Structure formats: structure tokens, C-alpha cells
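Submission sheet (multi-component)
Chains listed below:
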Amino acid sequence: MATSQPPLRFTGHKNFVYRLVFATLTGRTVHISQIRPSSPINPGLAPHEISFLRLLESVTNGSQLEISYTGTVLVYKPGLITGSSAGASSGGVIRHELPAGCNRGVSYYLLPLCLLAPFSKAPVKVLFTGPGVITSSTPTGDMSVDSVRTAILPLYNQFGIFNNIELRVLRRSNPGFNGRGGGGEVQLVFGHQVRLPKTLHLMNPGKIKKIRGVAYAVGVSASNNARMIDIARGILNPLVPDTYVFSDVSSAPLVPAPEKSNPSAKKKIGLGFGLSLVAESSTGCLFSADVASPPTGGQPPEDIGKQCAYQLLETISKGGCIAPAAATTMLGLMTMGTEDVGRLQVGRDVIADEGVIQLARDLAKFGAPGWGLREAAGENELGDVVISVVGRGIGNVGRKVA
Amino acid sequence: MIGKRKRETNIVSRSTTAKGDEATTPATNDTSSSHDIFRKFFEAQFQPLEVTDAHTTHHQGSKDGHVADESDESESESDWTGISEDADGNNTVEVVEHRDSSAIAEEPMDKRVRKAFMTSKPPSFSVKLAPVKSSPTKDDDDGDDVANLKNDLALQRLLKESHLLESSSDLAPTGKNRLKALDLRMQSLGAKSSLYHQNMPSSHRRGIKAKAEKKDDKRRREARENGIILEKPTPKSKPSVGRRERGVGGPSIGKFAGGSLNLSKRDLSAIQGPGRSGKGKSKRRR
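Outcome: structure written.
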């Protein structure tokens, strides 16, 4: 860069990935310090954060990373988002291996990667593999891959990004022993790159018209699926008749677990089941809920189904046009959009969320103009708030043909 | 799928009394008629009797029960006198249904919905699964051909002139762009040179060219410094080395300037022809 700005300084490990994502999108160097400085056993960056840094390095060109000895300080100087070039091995697909100690779901990587992908130079094709890929929702708060595909990716359509987007679940896995590791395999193809996302005006939440869902069972009996579906439908069917929950049963993934006597031994991990529900309103707003069996087990599928159905109802009851899980994606894309005011109606509980407020502060630090907030008016108010976001108008640097 | 479809089980408990007094079944008919005859005779002699038809109802009740239960205790028919019941007027019928909830009819639509949802692509919620519209077949081939030709022409033009369009929205350019598009079309139809190719002193033209080059250079340099990636520079088209078209009646060799024909060394060698290396040979050939 000809103009070398001083690095933006952040502290703490919260909102780590999105800070790095916005640093990459805006081209600003960031300096993050005090990453878990007081943790006695695991100070510094966690395995999943390191893994995300590796992913960031593989989809960009010219990024520079400096991590201190203890891992509590990180300096990241972003490069260009190149995506997967055709020269790479196996047809331009970037292979990203997650370590066995990873306790976050693969959606932890997918959501920020999807936010980067529209601004890439070439299509982004990443294959997540290795002994740490958890496709289900996790106790650490990540959504399942199914929810990413059915509740997050359709949102890009509203920004004019819809072509050639695929999320293939090649092998499913729940969290393994102690909530660590999986053994799943997921491939993301994000082939629609734009110069600038369209300006969004989403002011009408509409009414819920249908509910879809996926129940998955990995390495356990398929009757778990039927039981989850039964209970969830029992709750949701009286409210929305158009409710379908599909069942997906797969065997447990085998990961190598070498022993002294048998170096080629393998073990099954990632057993469990879970449910992902998505509600769609008449205006195309999506709300999702995700519950999976805990790694410790001991919860009947009926409870999971009931929890998930109630969680979906709670998400819908928060109101607005977006679910809390989709807020970062939507607001991030609006910020990176055209130099125009986009509007988005959200529920009070959604904007009062800690993560959203942190996002607003971080974006302000990255130089985005502040959000305008006002009470929603008209027939769709319902106590909601309308956020006005001014786009930065920078968009895709890699696509810039000035 | 949502489990196997279980057999629908219905258990309907029904009251054992016959509905009201749909009185007699043929089995008891003859006995009742003989009773009737006796009663009539008795009533003629004495006073009217109050009717007690308990026996017949019980009998019928047991029969009805058999029909409902479809059980296999037919041989006990004669012994069993039915359930003794007191009230028969206000007896409400309780219906209990046990139905497997997962066996709620799954429509054939299920498969289509599943296909639409369980793909690797993000499901397109907004797209309605509309029945395929049959195209109107009455249209003749001629009409189609004309339309195809028209579309083809429009597409060709769009492809050729797309770089002129600011936004891809307007296909009919206006103003400066229209003139440029016209110029392009004329060239493609065989015009010798562009309308915009003006005749001017060569020094003038060279200046224009140099300026344009300088401008482009600066733009590229700045973009490089700012980390912006630009399009690749178009390769400079070299003037063709082939024969240049000459005017009619001019000298076929040399350059005529200032009233004199100047011959360059090259021209001379061209006149003299090749093969001056071997002297003897060349002389003979002359």
C-alpha cells in the first residue's frame, strides 16, 4: 500500500474472526493484543483461531501475520482476497484441515469465509476436512452446516449474490468426545463475485409461511430422527401447517487413531443427533434454530426436538427481518455495499445483543460511518428498530477495473 | 424418511345398547310375535300390561357387541346375556381413537419438497414450483425465424458494442454512444475508415498518441501503488508489414518529394537484384 495507515488496535479475543474479516475487506492492518492473557493453562490464541488464520492466509495473497511468543498479541496485515486460483492442486480447491482439538463447529469458519467470498478475485472453493470438522451445531454456540446452507446463504440472494453457491456436506459429524473434534467433510463453493453488493431495504418482516428442517443422526439409530421430528412437528404443525422436517442418517466418521500395537487403527467419533429448523416468512426473511445432542449424551431426542421447536419460536418472536445469527452477515454486507443508505428492520432483542453492539463498535473503528437507529413506523412496527447503514462503496478491490 | 408407516390402529369403543329401539332382528322375530299374541289375548281378558322388553334389548346388545368387537367368542352367545345397563336414554357414546401421528398421510409432494430442500445449493425459497407452461404451438416457423433473426442481430450488436454501454440496461444507445455505435456498424459493413479518424498533421497525431500513452501509464502506475489490479494492457497492434496500398500513377519505387525522386539504398538494391556476391555468376546473369 502506498498509504500506510497505522494499525487499528483491538484488545481481547471476542469477535476475533469478524475483526480479521473486516480488516481484510477494508485493507487495514490490525493489532490485536491481550488475547486471553490471564488464562493459566491456555493463554493466547486457541487452536480454532489459529486454524482460521491459516484459512485466511490461504484465501488471500500477500497477508502477513505476526504472532507473539505467548500468542497473546497478533498483528495482521491483510493482502488481496484471491480465492482459490486454478493453479492450486485438485482443481483449484483449497484443502483446509482442521485440527483434532477444535471445539468449534465448521460454521465458525464458513460464515466469515462466506462474507469474504463475494469480494474475492476468483471463486472460493474450500474443502474442510480433517479430524476437527464438526458439521452439527455445537455447545460453543455454532450453528449447524444445514442452517448455514438454508438460513444464511439464501440471504446473499438479497444482495444480488446468488450464482454458483454450493455447500456440500460430504460427511456429517457431531462433536466428538469432550466436544472436541469431529471427522466430517464439507465443501464450500462460492462462485459469485461482485464488485459491490446491492443496497438492501428490508422493512417488512411478513408472516411465517413455511418451516423446513433437517434432522441428522450420525452413527446412531435413525429412530432418533423420527422422534425429534415427531415432537417438533407436534409443536409447530398447529402454528404453520406447511412444516416439513427431513431426516438424514449417516454412519459415524472414522478417524485414524494409531496405537502402539496397531498403527493403522481407526476409531469412530462424532456420534450424536440434532435438529436444524428454518422458518421462512412471506417476504423472504429467514429464522433458524439449532439444537444437537450434547457430547456427554444423556438427552432423549424428544427433548432435542422440543428445545429446537421452542428455540425457533423464540427466534421468530424476537421480531424484525433477521435472526440474531444472521445479523453479522447482513450488517457486514450492507456496510461493504454501495455508497448508499440501506435500511434493515430488526427486533429490539436482536440489536441489544452483545455481539451486534460489538460489531457496531468494531465497524466504527474500521472507519464505517455510524448506524442510524430509529423506531420502525407504519404497519410493520411491532416495536422494532430500523437500522440505516451507509455502505463504504469500496467493495471488491480485486474486481476493480478503474 | 420419517420412520416406517405403521399400521393404523383404531380402537372404537361403542355402547353396547342398540341405538334407541331399532327394534327387532329376524332371529327374535317369531318369539316376539308369539309374545305379542299372548299379550293381546291377556290384555283382552284383563288390563293393559306395561311393556318390558329388557330381554330383547339385552339379547340384541350382545349381538351388536359381537359385531363391533369381531372377537371369536361366538359359541358363548347363548349363555351370555350382555352387560346389564341401567340408563339407555342419556347414554353418550365415547369414541377413542389411537392413531399413529407419524402416519399422517404423506403426500406425493413430499418427494419434490425434499428434492428442492435437500440439495447442496441454498434452497431457493422464493421460487414457486409452477407447472411447466406449454409453449403456444400454433406459431408458424416463419414467425419464429423472423424473431430469431431479429434477436440474433440484436445480440450481435450488443456483443460488439457492449463496451460502449455504461450500464447494461439500455440497449439503444443515445448521444455520443449512438454515434460511436453507428460508426462501428458502418465499419463492419465495409466502410474504409472510421468517422473519427481525422486527417491531421502527423506531428499532431503523434502528440495525441503520446499524451494518451502517458495518461494510461500514469493510471497504471497509480493503481499499482495503491494495490489496485487493473486489466491487462491490450497488445499494441503493429502496422502490417505487408504491401502498402499505393496511389495510382505515382512512382513505383522511391520517394517523390520536393520535385525529385529519391532512391534509398534499399531501393537501389531492390533494383539491382540479388546475387552480387559471386561476380562471375552475376555478370553472366545480367
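Remark: The beta strands of chain B are 255-257, 260-262.
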